[in-house]
Amino acid sequence: RTQDQEGSWSEWTSWTPCSRTCGGGVSAQMRHCSTLRASRATTGCVGLYKRYHMCNTQECPAGSPDFRQAQCESYNGKQFMGRYYLWEAYWDGENPCELNC
Fold first, then answer.
1. pTM (2 decimals)?
2. In which broad location class does this protein mainly occur, judging by the first location in its UniProt entry (predicted)?
3. Which of 27, 34, 47, 74 has the greatest number of CB atoms lying within 10 Å of its CB?
4. Rounded Cα–Cα distance for residues 78 and 85 (Å)
């Protein structure tokens, strides 16, 4: 620790359950920063408090429901701006991680 760094990290938690059973999911670990005293000069802890890794990256079996479409369909039957819609997933081509309905 430096003089200005008053914090120390806890141990990493266990990995969270994978967000998907197939097709590529994400799991995370967290840790907490403990500081000895509150001070404007204190920088706390250096480094990440959360880290991620990919999990269950194997392809889903043929005929499995499309994960993105299922997320969009969860809004079917819910009012949006005074109307009801049937939501469909689409790709915008710019950000493959973004969900668009």
1. 0.62
2. secreted
3. 27
4. 8
